[in-house]
Structures are given as structure tokens and as C-alpha cells.
Predict the structure.
Amino acid sequence: MRRFTLIITVIATMLYAELSAQENIITPAPVRVQGGTCGEDCCEPAIPFDFSQISKLYIKGVKGIDVKRLEAAVKAAGLDVKRIKHTAKRGFINIFIEPESMSYDEGYVIFTSEHGVDITARSAAGAFYALQSVRQLVESGEWQTGAIIDYPRFKYRSLLIDVSRHFRSVDFLKRQIDMMARLKFNHLHLHLTDAAGWRMEVESYPRLTSYAAWRTPATWKEWWYGDRKYVEEGSEGAYGGYYTKEELRDLVAYAQARYITIIPEIEMPGHSDEVLAAYPELRCTHLPERQGELCIGKEATFEMMERILDEVMEVFPSEYIHIGGDEASKENWKLCEDCQRRMREEGLESVEELQSYMIERMERYLNAHGRQIIGWDEILQGGLAPNATVMSWRGEEGGIAAAEAGHDAIMSPHGYCYIDAPQDAPPTQPEAIGGYLPLEKVYSYDPAPETMDATVARHIKGVQANLWAEFIPTDEHYEMMLWPRAIAIAEVGWSKPENKEFGIFRGRALDIVERMQSEGYHPFDLKNEIGDRPESREPIQHLALGKSVTYNYPSFYYGPQYAAAGDVALTDGLRGTWTYADGRWQGFLGRGGVDITIDMGEPTTIHSVKADFMQYCGPGVYMPCKVEIWGSLDGENFEPLTTIDHEVTYEDTPSFMNFGWEGETEVRYIRYKAHRSKFSGFLFIDEIVVR
Ligand code: ACM
Ligand code: ZN
């Protein structure tokens, strides 16, 4: 206690200017860094600190603390030390675990004088995080004497790894855990079950792993859009895998040693196709051929889920168990005699309430065993289970609604935290889901901004990035999607907003990426990032800027969801980014296509008329198969300027094309028509540029 008070006093009275180089070493950015050292009555300027002089480790722990883990972390930080029984005068690293030293569980103070390093923390986790910071100081080679005081902004700092869509080895997971620990993450959410494969050994239901863990073909897209076949373990072409309980216990211990809690997710009632493929007797009574939602009418469903959760609790000691709860279609429940009987007996008025009935029962079961549930934000439908924590993914509304009702929430809105979206120019990236989610956008996320009501903010426990793996078959590809965007999430979760600045962070992220590459990881090559669509960066000047646009066939009007700026969107000078959801691209759905007329206001000599389109086949966005452009002086008699035919083919890679006319003519009206191809879906167009 005395030592800690001294350190804080020293920091508070430090006379020397903060050293900006020192401030920029540690990721996630710490609360406070200051150079120089102060004694009883004078302060010394900062001097380079030589970590190679450190040879003696003293740990003053408290009962129950695993000092071996801390010793391992000191060595992993690059310090060659021997444990000693008393503090040394020189060449020391002292770790004092003092539960009374501060109010932040995971906080720490590092104080370096010319003689050595003192670390004070309230808990072993805090000391561990201090050592992750020391590791970065050692690696930087730039640390000078000074002090760091640090603690996290949020208690829950997490990544989701999806091992269902593509199975990953335990070694792969351990490598990600190593990196997560260095960045002070404290939770790993393992998405263990989903239609694409069940991944945990369950002794009481062996077909979950002898059958539901294996599919053919291997490629998720072929499987999902094909006949979604599961096959017996060991059969020809069987693709998948699962973890034995022994392997999972080993993984849990590995993570625990790095102060990371693994949260297992067992999906229910939706995303359960594989469970029902293995145990078809649990489908609804009208026996749909394919069903993704468990039958809530049958007691056998609850018997199964409880036995599975018994085994999950045996393996995973986490307080929280994630029970999924997302995206359940409720249609089968409306047709099923058992589900309908359950609704009558329980007085449930809607299938949403039927879903809540299941979630609440599972919560009671887990609570009775000392555990708590987390569920995706759909668990709010039909009434939230009394003690549930909500993971908000469809936006932030679910998390906020839960917090307003006094529940805890973890923010994971897809617009910022779904790192399965491409992180750079989509035409240069492998096929992915979603728009464009660069490092900068992930970094800009604030789970609890100042504008948030304080009573709500109190319940926002943290942040999680999710990496779904539908389109990510290999480990290298998975790492490329994960890093460095996960580094940004680490800083969102740990650092105070006033200590965040993207330009500075990007510099640190570049260094981390380089280090990861040298250690055999496969992060995205940030230094060669292209960035946002060049055309979108500056407003464009052209002859039709601000001119009025008429949409010729109301039935072919742009869809309300993708109206962008409405009737002015195509002549507002702002060109679309890499993503169609940016409020700049205008999306046309339904029969026909785009058919608009621009009124230039007066007869005008023009030399070109051109517009951009994008193609993104996954979400159903296609190029036009034909573009026609006409000009007119009176608005009635139109002369054709050009007709362009384009063969539209299904491509995995997004593309962008410009369709237009060049020449010379005088017009007042320009009609631009783009025809939909044989693929039904959206046409997305932006800015009709006239020169
Ligand atoms: C989710 O992305 N369905 C949680
Ligand atoms: Zn049913």
C-alpha cells in the first residue's frame, strides 16, 4: 500500500515533460505514461532504460496466486531472470500484488528507475497485463526511465472465433490466444455449434460428433447452397472435426494461464440444423425435411440441451455460457402440434414468447448450477430472461434496450465489429460477407459514447469482434481477417477515448503487424492497404451537378432501404465508396432497372455521360446487362447516344464498372437506362457524371 501511494505521488508530481515517443509504445494505449524518475525531494530527467540489466525477479504475491505463470510472463517479455526471495538493489524486476493498491481489478503501475522495474497490481491479472506492457517496452528498444499507470475501460474484451463453419486445430486457437493475451483481451467466445458442424464431444449424444461434425463438400458455399449433407465420421470426403473434452480442457487451461476466459456458445433454438440432422426425432411434428430450429414443444429437446449443458459445464468453468438465441425462424413452431400444445399449456401468445420460454428455462437450469447466460440480441423478443446478458449484434439497439431494462450488455454491432467483411478494396480481397470494414472504422467504435445515458452506460460491459468463417477455409486466411482489426478492438475495449487517436494507433499497428509476420502469423499486410475507393474521397464537379433527376417508372424506383440521398443522389457530386450501404449508392430492386432523366436546365454541349455500377454477387448485387443513353433538346424527342451490352456472370470477387458515352452533342435532357440481367437482385448505381 505504502509503495503504491509513493508511486502515485511520484507520477502526480513528475516535473518532466511527457515523452511522446514513450507514450506511443504500448498497445492498447495505456491510461498514462510519463518519463523521468523522482526521488524524495528531486526529479531526474528520463534516461534510456536498459532491460538487459534485469536479472532478478522478486514476486510478493498473495495466497492462491500462481507465481509460476507470472514468472513465465516475465521470461516471455524477454527478461532473463532468476527468482529471488528479497528485493534486490539493482537489476531487479519486483512484482507486488497488493489487493488494496487500487480499485481497478486488472490495473497496474509500472515504475522504472535506473536500477530496475517495480510493478504493482491489485491482482495477478493486473500484473500479467503489466508484463505484457513490459514486453512491448523491451521489444521497442525505446523505453526510458519513467512510469505507466494503466487500467481497462471495459471489463469484457473479447473475440469470437467461429470453429463451426470451418474446424480449426487446438494449436491454431492457442496461437490466437497468445496474441490476444499480449493485447490484454480477457475473453474468447468459441462458436462451437452451428449448421455447418458440431464441434464438441458430448458423451450423452454421440451422433453430434460421429455425424453432425462432418459434411461434404468442404467448401461452405457449395455445401450451403447444395443439399447440406452430413456424413458419418471417417467416410469418404467427410470434412469437419471436433474437439474431445480432453482437448477442450487443455485449451481452457491454456487460456486461463493467460487470463483469458473461454465462453462456449451452444446455439439454441436456431442455427441447429446439424443437431436435428443427427437426432431427427427432435424435429417438429409435421417433420419438415430440413429444420434449423429445435422443437420447443418436446420435453426431449430440454432433456437433450440440459445433458449437453451438463457436459459443457464440466469442461468450461466460465461463469457465462452463451446460448445463442439468434436468427431462429419461427415458422415450423406455428405448424407443429407439440409447439402449439406447449403454447396453449403455458399461455404463450406468440412464437416469440415460445422462444423466450425456452431461453428462460435454459437460464433457470444454468443459474441453478451457478452459471449465467449470454445470448444474441434476439433473446429480447418475447421477453428477456431475468438474469441474461445481451450481446448486441444487429446494431446497438438491443444492447441499449437490455441496459435500459437493467441487464448487462456486450456490444458487437455488425457495422463495426463483424470482421468477416473485407478490410480493404473488395476487388483485391478474397470473397467475404458484408461491405467494407477497414481498420479505421473498427477503431472508431465507441461502445459507450459520452452521449449515452449514464444508467445505460453502466451496463455496457464491453466489446467483442466476431469473425464468422463461412468464406474462410484456411488458417492463413483466418489470421489475415482477424489481424490487425482485432488489435483495434483490443484498444476499443481497453483504452480511454481521450487516449485514442487513429493516426498514432495505425503506426503502432504497423509495428505489431511486422512483428507478427516475423513470428509466422499471417496478418493483413497493413502497409500496402489501398484504403477507400479513390473516386469516393473527393466530391466531383461536373455539368449535371445539382441538376434535377426524374425517375421515369415509379415501379422501378429505388428501394427505400437503399435510397441514399433520394432524388438528388445521382447528381450530388458524392460518389460511392466500396460498400453499397454507404448512403451514396442508390439501389434498385424489382422488375426493370434504372430509368432516369436529367434536366440540364438549358441546351448544353456535352462530351460524356457516365455512371458507376457495382457487382457483389454474394448479397445479390449485379451489373446491368444493357445500358442505353439518349439525349433530347425538348424532352419529348430523344436521340440515342449509345447502347452498351454487357454479359453478366456470377463472380466471387466484387467488381466496379463505369458505363457511358463519349462524343459531342447539344442536349437539355439526358435519359439513362440500365437493364437488369437474368440474375434477379439489386442494381446499384452512383453519380451520373456529365462533362
Ligand atoms: C449473428 O451474427 N447471427 C449473431
Ligand atoms: Zn415443434
About this structure: The CA atoms of residues 364 and 581 lie 40 Å apart. The chain has three domains: 2-150, 156-528, 534-690. DSSP finds 20 helices and 27 strands in the chain. The first helix runs from residue 2 to 13.
